[in-house]
Design goal:
Number of strands: 4
Shape: elongated
Strand content: 15-25%
Helix content: 40-55%
Distance between the termini: 38 Å
Structural class: alpha+beta
Order of helices and strands: HEHEEEHHHHHHHH
Number of domains: 2
Radius of gyration: 21 Å
Length: 283
């Protein structure tokens, strides 16, 4: 377990008996309605206002770490059709965390939404709320991977249960590709460990443990090397590196070694200029 986060956790646990912290907070939702008829515009704006509460008010898991994840959701509905008493929307869909080192995009996101439909959590598969549940667990699992090595496994299993039910439901839209994304991430053991050791290095720095920080940097680079030996252009790893390149450069410059800097430049030449500039921001 990351040392710095562990100290924060002790304080959070003491507060849990008084206040249950939201596991998602600052959920920002924007539904672009420019291509929709007037009635659908009004209904979708109502939906836009309902979604944050759906994420923020639910107890997703036993949150012993006091995790709070900001989310940003953007939806771009492009078409709507009627099927019996239902309206089926087709939309682009983007969901990300605050720094966007976790993000998922669907070009043909299909969902059902009718006027005044409530958003409720249910074991029954639903094209909209089950998709929200699936991605909620994907973000939680990804966050837990930063607290313990492969710590998100149990939560990824929750996402898998939702995707499996969705695949055999009457509206199996998009569930095959979501399950493929889940399978891919769970197979990327080294990518997930890169994330863990990156945050462990930061925690050790916060605890003024430079030797342990250098060791964590070594482990991060070791798993990054293993990942890129398998697939040098693996997308999730490159997203993570692009988001955190400046911080990685600053950490290695301040607490690492010249060898480690050479290694990260060799492994991630896309961000070579940032590493050589030691993460400094330029105007």
């Amino acid at each position: 377990m990351n040392a710095g986060k562990n100290l924060i956790i002790l304080n959070v646990i003491l507060l849990l008996s008084i206040v249950t912290a939201a596991q998602f907070h600052d959920v920002s939702v924007e539904i672009s309605v420019d291509r929709m008829p007037e009635k659908e515009r009004m209904d979708l704006k109502t939906l836009e206002q309902m979604i944050p509460y759906y994420f923020e008010s639910y107890d997703w898991f036993e949150n012993t770490y006091g995790i709070e994840i900001p989310l940003k959701i953007s939806m771009f509905p492009e078409a709507v059709s009627s099927s019996g008493f239902e309206r089926v929307f087709t939309s682009q869909f983007l969901i990300s965390n605050e720094n966007a080192d976790q993000r998922f995009f669907e070009k043909g996101f299909k969902f059902v939404y009718n006027s005044n439909d409530p958003l409720t959590h249910s074991e029954m598969s639903h094209p909209l709320t089950s998709a929200f549940d699936f991605y909620a667990y994907m973000f939680i699992a990804g966050e837990l991977d930063t607290y313990d090595p492969l710590g998100g496994n149990n939560i990824y299993d929750k996402a898998r249960d939702i995707a499996t039910r969705g695949q055999v439901s009457e509206r199996s839209w998009n569930w095959k590709s979501r399950l493929q994304d889940l399978d891919e991430i769970q197979r990327l053991r080294d990518y997930r460990l890169v994330k863990y050791y990156y945050w462990l290095a930061i925690d050790n720095i916060d605890q003024e443990k430079p030797k342990e920080a250098r060791s964590a940097i070594d482990k991060m680079l070791e798993h990054l090397d293993r990942m890129f030996q398998i697939n040098a252009r693996e997308r999730y790893t490159h997203v993570f590196l692009d988001v955190h390149a400046r911080d990685i450069a600053e950490i290695i410059h301040s607490f690492g070694t010249p060898r480690q800097m050479d290694q990260i430049i060799q492994l991630d030449p896309d961000n070579e200029a940032i590493y050589k500039n030691n993460g400094a921001r330029t105007e």
